[in-house]
Amino acid sequence: MSTPEKQEDDTAVVGTVTAAFGAKNRERLIARYFAQQAPGPCAASEAWTHVYRLLMWTDQTTGLAHCYESDKCQPGKPWYARSLAFHDWLSTALHVLPARLAHHMDWLFLRATEDLAAQALGRVARTEQATREQRLPYQGRGFPRPGEDPELVAMIQDTLQDHLASPPPAALWQTLVQQIRQYLMLENKRKNLVGEGFEDVLAAIVRRTCAQAAPDVAARRPLQDIPGFNPPKKNEKPNKVDLAIVRPGMRTLVTAKWSVRADREKQFAADFGDYVQAESDGKPFEYVFVTNEFDPARLMRACDKLATNAPMFTHVVHINTAALKATYRGSKESSMMRVLELIDTGRLISLERWLNLLQTN
């Protein structure tokens, strides 16, 4: 299989993109990834690699693959050592050098970024004449130009002045400032990409792995559109399921969260209550949690959460439980040791294992 590091020339359709980080473009890019990197059916054993190649990124402050909150992974803190262990495990598992790992990840974000840059160029070309006309009455009065940032330019000049043969022209400084701003803005967009993008990637993987066993797969599907669930009551907001999988004899409702916050944990139980109340066929359904969370306490709570004296989640799924084992290795923390027990007992399972269950059950 080729890797995302290879050069690509598929740019013909960029001009048609209207929302680089929107659902339609994500769908297009994910389809493009699989067509180029893994055409044909997807093996369950390879599914985790696609998730990480598409969505995993490098933490800007540590230079390591992101597995936990950035502020807790700084050098000298316990999670920095664990981040090093995860980075080592991932680069080994993907058969790349640790220094080259960044070039084999973050595919979806980087491609969406390219599309966003193309959009920006198009906007500049469309608005350039209008901008000149709007500024014309103020010509010669020294009005700031769009995107100017004298303080940032001064900071860069002071840092590099001893290394510059000659001062760069003003237009070049403005271009640099715009590029820096764009870079910082993009990191904020990552949150949305990792959120809904995680759902989209999982849907694509389930379709490619379980095409015969699970023919009906959809991300963000309204609950009322799933067989055997009633529509919401009048004036109630429609409930959308992160990932819905309908198989002969079983409906699987998936909550897919790359990582878990306290408010999300509370939402899990609320969503489950809504699903139970809306179920109209009197038949069982699966409620599954899929995540890439590395915090042991959050994983424990998901595994132990009960509903009427039974586990609330039918399955708790981590993208790769081997990654957890490698990251926790050597730790004596009770929560981490407990998570390793949950893996050994089968309460916390890998994405590969869950996909195999979808195909066989």
Plain-language structure description:
This protein has helices spanning 23-37, 47-55, 78-93, 107-135, 150-160, 170-209, 262-278, 296-304, 321-328, 334-345, 351-360, and strands at 216-222, 240-247, 250-257, 286-291, 306-307, 310-311, 315-318, 348-350. With 361 residues, it is of the alpha/beta class. It is globular and about 75 Å long. The model is unreliable at 5-16 (pLDDT under 50).
The computed structural class is alpha/beta
The number of E-state strands comes to 8
Q: How large a portion of the residues is in β-strands, by DSSP E?
A: 5-15%
Provide the succession of SSEs.
Answer: HHHHHHEEEHEHEEEHHEH
Largest beta-sheet details:
6 strands, mixed
Approximately how much helix is present in the residues? Answer: 40-55%
How would you write the strand order of the largest sheet? 1-2-3-4-7-8
Distance between the termini: 29 Å
**Poorly predicted ranges (pLDDT <50, ≥5 residues)?**
5-16
Oligomerization: single chain
Number of helices: 11
Please tell me how large the radius of gyration is. Answer: 24 Å
The chain-level mean pLDDT equals: 89
Tell the overall outline: globular
Brief characterization of the structure:
It contains 11 helices and 8 strands.
Summarize the SSE layout with pairings.
Elements: H1 23-37, H2 47-55, H3 78-93, H4 107-135, H5 150-160, H6 170-209, E1 216-222, E2 240-247, E3 250-257, H7 262-278, E4 286-291, H8 296-304, E5 306-307, E6 310-311, E7 315-318, H9 321-328, H10 334-345, E8 348-350, H11 351-360
Parallel strand pairs: 3-4, 4-7, 7-8
Antiparallel strand pairs: 1-2, 2-3, 5-6
Helix pairs in contact: 1-4, 1-6, 2-6, 3-9, 8-10, 9-10
